[in-house]
Design brief:
Number of domains: 2
Largest sheet: 7 strands, mixed
Strand order of the largest sheet: 3-2-1-4-7-6-8
CATH topology of the largest domain: Spore Coat Polysaccharide Biosynthesis Protein SpsA, Chain A
Radius of gyration: 30 Å
Number of helices: 14
Helix content: 40-55%
Strand content: 5-15%
CATH architecture of the largest domain: Alpha-Beta Complex
Distance between the termini: 120 Å
C-alpha cells in the first residue's frame, strides 16, 4: 500500500530536522574538543597560572625536582628560571665576540722568548689519576732536555684542594709564573669542579664527563705569564718533538685529532651554528681535545665552548637522550661528547687560514698511544685512546704492565714504546726520586729517570 503525499512530506521534514540537530551536536563536540586542547596546551607551556614558559624549557609541576635535583618553586625549575633561551644565546654571542677580538689582537708571530703552559685537570678522585699525572709530568721533563733556551714550559695542574698534597709531593708549587726568567716548574692552580660548588644552578651540573678539563681554561685568569697554552687531557704525553715547536707566522692555534665526527652530527652542528647561533661554519671537523695556541685565543675559545655546551645540553638533547644514552646513539648524536661538540663550535669560528689542523703542516697531536708507527718529528703529542692494545691506559691503570721488562722498548722509537717507557718509569720511581730527578736537568739528560725493569 502506497503512502499518500502528506505522509511523505512529513517524513522528509523529520529527517531534515534530525540532520540539523546532528550537525549542531557535531559542531558543539568540535568546539569542546578544541577548548580542551587549548587548556591542555596552556598547561604544558605555562606554569599553570597563565604565564607562558619559553619554548625549549621543560615544565615541571609544583613539588617536582628538575634533573639536577633542585626544588621547584611556583612550577618553574630554577634551571629554567636561571638559564632562559635569551641568556643562553647572549652568552654565546658575547663569547664569540671576545674570541673574535682575541684573534684580531694575536701577534703575527711568536716572541723571541716563548713561555708555554701545558694545562691539565687533575680530579684527584681515583688512584689511576695519580699514575697519569706522573706520566705526563715526566714526559714534560723529558721534553725540556731538548728544548732551546729561548723556550720555557710549565705544567699547569688545575686541581681541587684535595689534589694539592700529591702534586706537591711530585715537586709542584703554587707560585705562578711572573716572567720568562722564572724557572720551569709544575705549578698548581686551584680549580673547584663545577659539581662541587655549592648553590650553583647550571645546565652542565649533570654533565660530569670531562667538563672541568675545558671549564678550568675558560675560567683561567692568571695566564698573562704565558705566551701560549696547550690545553689537553691528563692521559697524554708530550714528545721530545714538542721541544722547539712554535706556531709559524700567521697561525694562532693548532688542534689535535678528535673521534666524534659523523655525517649526521656534522650536519646538525652546522645547522645549529648558522641557524640557531647566527655564527659561521668554516668546515672544520673532528676537532681534538688538545689545542695549542696563543693564550688568550685558547682561553676565549674555551669560553665559547662552554657557552655552546650549555645551549646544546638545554636545547638540542631530550631528557631521554641525556639520561639513557647508549651506544645505539653513537656517533650519530651523542650527549657524552658534549665537550667535543662545544670545541667544534669554537674552532669553526676561527679563520681556517689561521689554524693548523691535525695532520697538516707536519703536525700530529692526539696521536694514538697504541701506534707502532715511527715516532717521527711530526708527532708532538700522544693521547691514550680507548683501546686494549699496547700501550693501553686501561691496562696501565689495572697494573697489567707493572712487571713488564721494557728493555726491548728502551729506544722509544714508536708512540707505544715511548708511552710505555715514560708511564712505567714514572710509577716505578719513588716519590722522592721523581721530585728530585724531574727537577734536575742534568739527571734528566743522563736518562736517570728510566726504569726499564721493576726491580
Amino acid at each position: 500500500m502506497k503512502k499518500n503525499s502528506t505522509e511523505t512530506d512529513r517524513s522528509h521534514m523529520c529527517l531534515a530536522r534530525f540532520r540539523s540537530i546532528a550537525y549542531l551536536l557535531f559542531l558543539w563536540v568540535v568546539f569542546l574538543g578544541g577548548l580542551l586542547g587549548t587548556v591542555l596546551y596552556i598547561g604544558t607551556v605555562s606554569d599553570y597560572s597563565g604565564r607562558l614558559i619559553e619554548p625549549g624549557t621543560r615544565h615541571l609541576r609544583q613539588n617536582e625536582a628538575d634533573r639536577n635535583g633542585n626544588t621547584i618553586l611556583d612550577g618553574i625549575s630554577p634551571l629554567d628560571a636561571a638559564w632562559p633561551k635569551a641568556r643562553l644565546l647572549s652568552e654565546i654571542h658575547n663569547a664569540a665576540e671576545s674570541l673574535k677580538q682575541s684573534i684580531s689582537e694575536a701577534p703575527p708571530a711568536g716572541p723571541s722568548q716563548l713561555s708555554r703552559g701545558v694545562a691539565i685537570y687533575f680530579p684527584a678522585s681515583e688512584a689511576h689519576q695519580e699514575k697519569e699525572l706522573k706520566g705526563l709530568l715526566l714526559s714534560v721533563a723529558i721534553m725540556r732536555v731538548s728544548q732551546p733556551e729561548s723556550i720555557k714550559t710549565d705544567l699547569l695542574v688545575f686541581t681541587p684542594p684535595r689534589g694539592f698534597e700529591f702534586a706537591k709531593s711530585l715537586g709542584c708549587v703554587t707560585e705562578k709564573r711572573t716572567s720568562f726568567s722564572d724557572p720551569e716548574r709544575c705549578i698548581i692552580v686551584e680549580h673547584v669542579p663545577l659539581s662541587e660548588r655549592s648553590g650553583v644552578v647550571d645546565p652542565l651540573l649533570s654533565y660530569k664527563r670531562y667538563l672541568d678539563s675545558i671549564l678550568m681554561v675558560a675560567e683561567y685568569k692568571d695566564y698573562s705569564g704565558y705566551d701560549m697554552l696547550i690545553k689537553t687531557d691528563m692521559d697524554t704525553f708530550v714528545t721530545p718533538h714538542f721541544a722547539n715547536w712554535t706556531l709559524p707566522a700567521g697561525k694562532i692555534i693548532a688542534v689535535g685529532r678528535g673521534g666524534y665526527s659523523h655525517s649526521n652530527a656534522d650536519r646538525r652542528l652546522s645547522h645549529i651554528m648558522k641557524d640557531s647561533f647566527g655564527l659561521i661554519d668554516s668546515g672544520a671537523k673532528n676537532i681534538g681535545s688538545t689545542w695549542y695556541g696563543y693564550s688568550r685565543v685558547v682561553v676565549e675559545a674555551s669560553k665559547l665552548s662552554v657557552a655552546a655546551m650549555r645551549w646544546l645540553d638545554r636545547m638540542e638533547f631530550t631528557e631521554y637522550e641525556r639520561t639513557h644514552h647508549t651506544t645505539d646513539t653513537w656517533p650519530i648524536w651523542y650527549w657524552p661528547v658534549l665537550t667535543m661538540y662545544g670545541g667544534h663550535v669554537s674552532i669553526n669560528q676561527i679563520d681556517p687560514a689561521k689554524v693548523i689542523y691535525n695532520g697538516h703542516d707536519d703536525v700530529e697531536m692526539d696521536y694514538g698511544s697504541a701506534s707502532n708507527d715511527p715516532l717521527k718529528p711530526a708527532i708532538k703529542h700522544i693521547h691514550c685512546w680507548h683501546t686494549d692494545d699496547f700501550f693501553s691506559k686501561f691496562a696501565f691503570a689495572k697494573g697489567t704492565y707493572d712487571k713488564m721488562d721494557l728493555t726491548s722498548h728502551s729506544e722509544m722509537k714508536t708512540p707505544s714504546a715511548y708511552s710505555a717507557v715514560v708511564a712505567l718509569s714514572a710509577v716505578r720511581l719513588t716519590t722522592q726520586e721523581f721530585a728530585t730527578i724531574t727537577n734536575d736537568p742534568k739527571r734528566m739528560a743522563n736518562n736517570e729517570w728510566k726504569r726499564l725493569t721493576n726491580v
